[in-house]
Amino acid sequence: MNDLRDIINHGLKGSKPPGSQEQIDEVQKTAGHIKVIDETVSTADKLAGGPAYREQLQKSREELAALTEENKKLLEQVHRADIATIKSELGGKIDQLTETVNRGAPREKISDQIDEIKKTATTLGLGSTKMSELNEMMSFIEKLRPTKDLADQIKEAKDLIKNIEPQKGEEAPELPASIALQMKKMDHDLQITLARMEDERQERQHKFELTMLEFKDNREFKKAEIEAKIAVERERNELLGSIISRFGAAAAKGSIDAGAIGAKVSGQVIEAGEGDFGEAACPSCGNIIAIAKDAAKTICPSCKTIYPIHRIPKEPGTVEIDV
Amino acid sequence: MKLMSNPKGLIGALAKEFVAPDFLAGYLQEEAKGKTVPQFYKYIEEGIWNNLPPGQKQFLINQKPWNLEWFTFDFILKAIAKSNPTIACLIMTSPQLQKEIQSQIEDIKHQLS
What we know:
- By secondary structure, chain A is α/β, with parallel strands linked by helices.
- In chain A, 70% of the residues lie in helices and 8% in strands.
- By secondary structure, chain B is an all-alpha fold.
């Protein structure tokens, strides 16, 4: 390699006069050759893979990594600075809008300013929820004529912009672990309470149904009982009615014939004082029977039994008769 | 025919034929209800017509002249038997009571005819 350089240098020195244009051209031409040769030599060294080269390569790699990291940080700083600028710009626009509204400027001007605010907000990359809130507020401002309340609305919009951080996706705030755990516990307790309430409700419903069934049964039973009583009463009245009808004819004849009125005559005699009247218990059925002052017989209205009355002479008066 | 051409008269006739007997039967049922033998004797002694409240007496008098064939001993006995069968049996077994009631029926008919 050195030999080649010497040959070239020697040839240059000897062939052309120094300082001439030809020499300059020659030198430049030769420098180009040297550069090519250096590169060729360097490539040959690299291919040889010497230890010096490997050490240098390692250093270069470390430097490159450090530079890349620094570059990333710088880019992030630039991004933040950009966002801060845009936010500041947005705040300024909203202030401008406030002033415009307070001045009572024409609606077209307000609309233009609102459009600008929207564009800036879009550049900020707000989440869709916040963006829709902002849009609603701005639409409200656009629809109404400027008033004092409107200025408040704009202030609210400004606060909203201040409170939001630039983000690309939907908001998904993460709660602290302790609060999340507590909320889960509360949710669990709520589920248990709801389940208990449902159980109690079902139990109450079941009890209510049972009570209703019992009530219906009782009602049916009482209804049947009353109907049975009415039937017995009706039957008794019909029988009594037939006796009375027959008695009407018998009374007309002046005598009561047991067979004629469908009654039976008992062998048992009821004793009563002469001219006594009152009530006694029927020996057959226990129902009340009436004894008239002048009656020689008495009829039980329940069992239709005729009892002869034996009169014992004594002082007349109203007494209860024991049979 | 005369009755058919006079609606007021027709209503009056219907009242006589249907309302008055039911009215009197209802009154007798209420009077007999729950009465004991001595209480009933006292009631008969005082007289059915005399025990009738003045308003009801006037109602029956206002029906004059009318056919009172329905007002019989059997009518009274049936009315009483519906609310107090024991008293009905008392009447059935007492010739004295039957006679007294029959006599009062005649008196009442005389008052209302």
